[in-house]
Amino acid sequence: MELTSPLDFVKRSVLAVQDYTHLSLRSLSNMFRKPFYMADAIQQADLIGVGSLPIVVLTGMFTGIVLALNTSKTLEQFGSLSLTGRLVSFSMVRELGPVLTSLMVAGRNSSGMASELGSMKVTEQIDAMRALGTDPFKKLVTPRVVATVFMMFFLTIISDLVGLVGGWIISFSMLGLDSTQYWNSAYQVLKYNDVITGLVKPLVFGFIIATVGCYYGMTTKGGTQGVGRSTTQAVVVASVLILFVDAVLTQLFITLS
Amino acid sequence: MFEEDKSIDTVHKAIIFEDVSIAFEDSPVLDGVSFELRRGETKVVLGVAGSGKSTILKLCLGLLRPDRGRIYVLGHDVTTMSEEELFDLRSKVGIVFQESALFDSLTVRDNVAFRLMEEHLPESEVEKRVRESLSFVELEEAIDKFPAELSGGMRRRVGIARAIITQPEVLLYDSPTGGLDPITSTTIIELIMKQRDVFKTSALMVTHRLQDGFTLAGHYYDPASKHMKPSDGKPSLDIRTSFMILREGKAVFEGSAHELGQVQDPYIKEYIS
Description:
The structure holds two protein chains of two kinds.
Chain A: H1 6-29, H2 38-77, H3 84-122, H4 125-131, H5 136-173, H6 179-188, H7 192-218, H8 223-256
Chain B: E1 13-24, E2 27-38, E3 42-47, H1 53-60, E4 68-73, E5 76-77, H2 83-90, E6 93-96, H3 108-118, H4 123-136, H5 152-164, E7 170-174, H6 182-199, E8 202-207, H7 210-218, E9 219-222, E10 227-230, E11 241-247, E12 250-256, H8 257-262, H9 266-272
Parallel strand pairs in B: 3-8, 3-11, 6-7, 7-8
Antiparallel strand pairs in B: 1-2, 1-4, 4-5, 9-10, 11-12
Helix pairs in contact in B: 3-4, 3-5, 4-5, 5-6
């Protein structure tokens, strides 16, 4: 294997950041320029949103269950078992709902976008599209970005709700808590700031999932091996970026509140 | 909308390359290439693998940008045009890719109709023109199939149907017979000849198969028999086919089939022998 000089590595990294920024900005500006590929966006929304529903529901449900089980042990020691609903609700809505949903969707869809667009790239289908007078950024990238951002918002809400239901099932059936008490405490703990934090995050994460997936797809080189490499990199980079941006956003919302 | 360069002779010339150079990762691919493609002419670009043949086609469409030189396509300097402006120009130029580059998730119908659907033409009009185009390449029966269900030759024919559906002014063929058996190759060359003789479309055909070029130069398409026939040097037939040979990024020969046969350069003599 050929060794890369540190200077080449830095140059390549800066170029990659520049290309990614360019793709991201272009995907945004294309939303306001004709032609609009509404049918493609709806198709992608179906693939990304409806297709991710089972995995998001399961993730939300088990996270809620595990949260209730784990926190109940500690709360019981202080005689505060009735606070289980609060803890599940706060954790799900503010943090775990958006982050875990995004990580699951990133695993499923960033990889899907990178492999689909990557295959098109290595088989010259992207060049063919350009040669046929169609902008692949408008036709392929923008609909995926729009669909992912839009669907992530609703998927996160569903994940939060299902997580709360999971916590309720444990609280009601295993901890012997009253249903009304659980839902009341779960509702009352949430402030506007928590809800807004929990709903803004998935929008940003959705943008990261789609742009990273599309970036790696559109820059694929090296045949089928290159497609595999792009797919893996897309999932890794999207996941790490989601966790990093989550930390930044969390601090930002704390400062703002 | 882009402006046409008035100083360029677009009446007689479809493509002009002026001292074009391009390098990938510091290794030169084209080095000062200049040539012209006249209207109605088919130019066969020959050369060994890696001599820069396919790069010429991508440069014509603005899919790549040269490091130096000017490229005029239908009077427009593609080296200075933005991607947005190029999309308009590309609708007047058709290309058949080396491996067909069909959209594998679309049927043959949708592949061929791609450009028309992008222009939002009525469904009935699209269907009519798709069938016309597929009938030109004698592949109407494959209309509902997916590319994966087609043979290599059939895919190449669908690629031609997709390229000609808008009746472009210029056609670019990237190794249209590469990897095909001799019978299928002849069918493809016959289709290119049909497009040249029936529609008088200007074309650049990149290939490493010398016999494809000589078949094109020595035959004409006979609409009555629907097959190609030898021209036997009849001047009335006006078969405008010329040759260009690339060697290590430079154009080492440009001329007719007859001139190619007379050339004394040892490299070219060895190439055509």
